[in-house]
Design goal:
mainly beta; 5 strands; binds zinc ion; three-stranded antiparallel β-sheet; 11% helix; two-stranded antiparallel ribbon; 1 helix
């Protein structure tokens, strides 16, 4: 099983650590990440994709890259 890189990230507004609980080793490949994320996905029904992220701490929103 390949080793996934750490997906640590911070809020661009308040710099809060958005990395959540660690994902169990056996589940990391399925999730494609080493940790869950605390950021909130803003889903656009028309575009059928997540277009923005929202910080759970300060409420700041930013475009998904
Ligand atoms: Zn924030």
């Amino acid at each position: 099983m390949k080793q996934l890189t750490n997906n640590k990230e911070n809020c661009p507004y308040c710099n809060a650590d958005l990395q959540g609980e660690p994902i169990l080793n056996e589940d990391q490949e399925w999730y494609g990440a080493t940790h869950f994320t605390r950021k909130i996905g803003m889903y656009d029904l028309e575009k059928d994709r997540t277009i923005k992220w929202k910080c759970p701490d300060c409420g700041g929103e930013w475009d998904r890259l």
